[in-house]
Amino acid sequence: MSKVIDGKAIAQSLRNDIKSQIDELRKTHPTFSPKLSIIQVGAREDSSVYVNMKKKAAKE
Asked: Where's the Tetrahydrofolate dehydrogenase/cyclohydrolase catalytic domain (predicted)?
C-alpha cells in the first residue's frame, strides 16, 4: 500500500521548528545570527536558481 505525503507541508513544518529554535536561542544569546554557506562550482543556471531559492528560504 502506498502513502501520499505532502512534502510542502513537511518542509514548512521543519522551517517553523527551526525558526522556533532560533527564537529560543536569541532569548539567551541576543546576538546569535545563523549563517548559510554555499559553495557553488560552475555557473549552471539551474544551480544558480536552486541556490537563490535556498537563500530566500533562509531569510524567512
From this structure: 5-60
d(CA 16, CA 53): 17
Active-site positions read 54
The pLDDT of 18-39, averaged and rounded, is: 94
Residue carrying C-alpha cell 528560504: 57
**What grid cell was written down for 40?**
557553488
What average pLDDT is seen over the chain? 94
Give the 3-state secondary structure of residue 52: helix
**Structure confidence at residue 26 (pLDDT):** 95
**Nearest in space to 53 (alpha carbons), one of 26, 19, 15, 21:** 15
